[in-house]
Design goal:
Length: 332
């Protein structure tokens, strides 16, 4: 059973009196625009439900969606409406769905009137930190402007604090914090990274913790979930696994999790394995005649097997003792 930690809090008093729904969005009325909006919201939620695992993340997003809807109804009745601070921290290894969830959130909040654009701007340290005095502030402000109306997603955000007191990363943090206040009506900031590093980052920047009341842990996927992800990826491309291929894929995934790199890539690792199997299937079929539809859609066991070792090298011989000879993670 995968466990996911959720920390949820309310915004500060400064922003609590502002309207959650932008006026232009509220005035759309109940005609075709409102109907189309509802359909688009339902489509986003359907995409979210299709994602494997992440049950607590899905639960939180449903809570936020319900809260926004109720505040709209309170406004229509002339009641006081309130808001939650929507800046968030995502903690987890690569391939656990962080950027995908952020992108879906952007689309959802646009259709619900919280954001005007709903786009996702994904950046890292190099996009925010400059090389000389004054350069960092300019770069960080430019990224904030690009993200205005949507979500600014900062991957490996802990790297902004890794250089010590004199590092320009500290300046980038100051600019981002100011931007959170200046654009709080139309911008959501998400800081993402490995769990341990993000925890340390928050300890070294205690003022940030209260500014990010929503903290989500994205755990690694289980074998069962990785197999489900693989089948979804294949189905989208109109491929299927034969029983033998499914058995072989499960063996590969177990080997990667037990003996592979600590940050094995999760869903990204599965995508790499699937794409490689598709290429090997094509190589296996390309010279055959009279191919059937079943041939074209089936991934066989041999498409997932490791290639023969080079001449003079034993099958299990590896330059890195203790781990599998094949790595499917692009980051390695």
């Amino acid at each position: 059973m995968r466990k996911l930690q959720v920390k949820f809090g309310t915004g500060n008093a400064k922003g609590s009196s502002r309207s959650l729904i932008r006026p232009l969005q509220r005035e759309r009325g109940s005609g075709d625009n409102e109907f189309n909006n509802r359909r688009r919201v339902e489509a986003v939620m359907a995409e979210l439900d299709k994602m494997v695992g992440l049950e607590n993340v899905k639960g939180l997003i449903k809570e936020l969606k319900a809260f926004i809807e109720i505040q709209r109804r309170r406004q229509l009745e002339g009641l006081v409406s309130s808001t939650n601070t929507l800046h968030m921290i995502f903690k987890g290894n690569p391939g656990t769905g962080k950027s995908t969830v952020a992108r879906l959130m952007g689309r959802l909040f646009k259709e619900m009137g919280v954001l005007t654009q709903g786009h996702l701007i994904e950046v890292e340290r190099a996009d925010l930190v400059g090389e000389y005095i004054g350069h960092t502030a300019h770069k960080a402000r430019e990224q904030l402007k690009k993200a205005l109306g949507g979500i600014l997603f900062i991957d490996e955000a802990y790297s902004l604090a890794r250089g010590g007191e004199k590092d320009f990363g500290r300046e980038a943090i100051d600019v981002l914090v100011k931007g959170m206040e200046d654009y709080r009506d139309n911008l959501i900031l998400i800081l993402a990274g490995y769990k341990e590093e993000m925890d340390y980052f928050l300890e070294t920047n205690p003022g940030l913790r209260s500014r990010f009341p929503i903290q989500l842990d994205f755990p690694d996927y289980s074998i069962t979930e990785l197999m489900a992800i693989a089948r979804l990826m294949l189905a989208e491309k109109q491929y299927i696994l034969t029983p033998g291929a499914a058995e072989e894929l499960e063996k590969i995934l177990r080997r990667e999790i037990l003996f592979g790199h600590r940050y094995n890539g999760n869903a990204r690792m599965v995508r790499n394995i699937i794409e490689r199997a598709m290429r090997r299937q094509a190589l296996r079929l390309v010279k055959k005649k009279n191919l059937t539809r079943q041939d074209l859609i089936s991934i066989e066991r041999e498409d997932l097997l490791r290639p023969d070792p080079p001449a003079g090298k034993k099958e299990n011989e590896n330059d890195f003792p203790g781990g599998p000879p094949i790595c499917y993670n692009n980051s390695q």
